[in-house]
Amino acid sequence: MKKLLGLSLMGLSCALAGAAPAKSAECPRGELDARYCDADGDMVADAPTDPKQFVDPSTLVFAYTPVEDPEVYRGVWDGFLKHMEKVTGRKVQFFPVQSNAAQLEAMRAGRLHVAGFNTGSNPLAVNCAGFVPFTMMADKQGAYGYEMEIIVPADSSVQKIEELKGKTIAFTSQTSNSGYKAPSALLASAYGMQADKDYKPAFSGKHDNSVIGVANKDYDGAAVANSVMKRMFARNAVDAKKIRSIYKSESFPTTGYGYVYNLKPELAAKVKEAFFTFNWEGSELLKEFGKAEPAQEAFMPITYKQHWAVVRDIDKAMNVSYACK
């Protein structure tokens, strides 16, 4: 990570729609949007001090990060969402978002109450949309994480990163940690490779698109989250023999789960209870996420301040802005 700190790239901004409430009075907020306060210094938005600003929906809307086909995950999450209905006493609706931007916009506009935001978009969700992450998946001993891998077709002549010069490298979206920010920082800082100068960037939109694109030789290489790729291998969504990895990063935190900052506190507490009391044994969640290494088979408590520090370091190195426009 030390290599990344001197890197200076064009900043990114979060362009989101949705009617904003009146700006908060002057208060400590760090990098949070002006509508939020952070009096306790935990780097996430505090709950409103005025009870009239709480939201108390009869139907909770849940969205899982759009790293793969959302409809595949409707069934995967069904058992968990039924458990959340029992714990909260509310209906829970699965919202199949198609992009990180759509998910961020939905929460900022008040249409999304509970969500899993991917590693890279967590800081934008926290600062722009009032997202309060409190848990992520881990194994039963508390081990967690995934790595960014740069992959090429198995029969490609490319053996190392610098041999991708002049070729097409697929990324997912600009908000993705492993699908864009981390590999872009690596290519620039460690190999002196700049987009559009030393290689041609392509944006596939999702990790699964990048993996399949490399397998089909649509791209010369791609940067992906290996947790997604391994799940695809496990369910035979792509032939692992058609792909070869030429780089693996250090471990990053996985998808962070949480709720919108102004969810009524009693309801927010029930949402947290639903995550931490869910029985994984025999569940579709375990069937799907247990394929990861380490296995994702439990929800562990996390804090944005601690667990996303490495991601914020990458964003800082890339001059990423958390300002919403």
UniProtKB/TrEMBL annotation:
It comes from the Bacteria. Keywords: Signal. GO terms for cellular component: ATP-binding cassette (ABC) transporter complex. SUPFAM superfamilies: Periplasmic binding protein-like II. Residues 1-19 form the signal peptide. One of its GO terms (biological process) is transmembrane transport. Belongs to the phosphate/phosphite/phosphonate binding protein family. This is Phosphonate ABC transporter phosphate-binding periplasmic component (TC 3.A.1.9.1). The lineage of its organism: Bacteria, Pseudomonadati, Pseudomonadota, Betaproteobacteria, Burkholderiales.
